[in-house]
Amino acid sequence: MRDPASPTQASLVLENFLPYRLAVLAHKTSRALSAVYGERFGLSIPEWRVLANLGHAGPLYAGELAERSSMDKPKVTRALQRLETGGLVQRAVDAQDRRQVRLTLTRRGRGLFRDIAVLALEWEAQFLSPLSEAERKTLDRALTKLMQRGEDRPRSANARAARHAEAL
Amino acid sequence: MRDPASPTQASLVLENFLPYRLAVLAHKTSRALSAVYGERFGLSIPEWRVLANLGHAGPLYAGELAERSSMDKPKVTRALQRLETGGLVQRAVDAQDRRQVRLTLTRRGRGLFRDIAVLALEWEAQFLSPLSEAERKTLDRALTKLMQRGEDRPRSANARAARHAEAL
To answer: Which of A71, A95, B50, B106 could join A167 via S-S bond, C-beta 3.0 to 4.6 A?
Structure first.
C-alpha cells in the first residue's frame, strides 16, 4: 500500500495496489484449495463454490447463489447443470410461489460437502500457519472492516458499471 | 477464521473461511473500483485489468497477461479485442522470435492508464481509510506472507485441478 502522504503521486504500482493484491491472492488461494477437492472429488472451482454455498446456506434461489458465490450467472448455471447431472443438487418448487425454484443439495451432495469441509478446514489451518496469532486477528479485523466498507458504498452511483462488472 | 484449538471440527462456516472471505472481498473491491473507471471511461473489469497490467509491466505476451491479471485466456482475449478495436492496445512482432507477438499500449492507451491511475489511487486511499496505520501495515505484511505461501506450494500435485481452475 502506498505512502498516504503522497496522494497526488500518479504512479500506479500494481504490486502495491490493494485491489490487485486482493485479486491475485484470492485467485491463488482458490486455485491452491482447488487442488484439495479437485484431485479427490473431481470438482471445478465454480462447482465447489456452488456446493459450499448450498451446503452452508441452502436452499437458495439461483440469483442468491450467484451473489453469494461471487460468480456471474452463466458460470453458476453451468456449475449447477454439472452438479445436477452428478446427483449432488436438486431443484425444489417454492411452496409459496410456484414460479420460483429453489436449489438444494441432495443427500449425496450434503455428504460430499461435509467430506470436503474437513479437508478445507485442515487446508486453511495450514495455509494460515505463517501468520502469528496477532497477525491473524488483525487480518481478520481488517478484512471485516473492508468488507463492511464495500457494503456501505453506494452501488447505484453507477448502474452501468455494475452491470459490466463480472465475477472476478 | 476458526479457533485453531478445534482443528477436527468439521463445520465449515463460509463467512469465517479465509478463501471465501478473500474471494468475496476481492470481488466487491473490483466491483467498487469499476464504478470509478466504468462510468467515466466505459471500461469493463477485464479491460481495466489488461490495461493496467500492460501499463504497468508491458509489453507482455498474452500468456503472461493472463497469469498476471488472474483471468482465464478467453476473458483476456475478449478484453484485448475490445481494447485493440478502441485503439488502446497494439500488437508487436517480437524482433528475436517472429512467431511471438507481444502486446503493448498505444500512446492513447498509456494516457488512459495514467488518467485512471490517479483516480484509482485516490479511491484506494479512501477505501483503506477505516483502517489504522498499524492495521494497514499488518494487513500488508499478512497479504505478502500469504501471497508467498501461494507461490511456495507445489502446483504440480494436481495438474488436472489446475487445468480446471478458472480465474475466480
So the answer is: A71
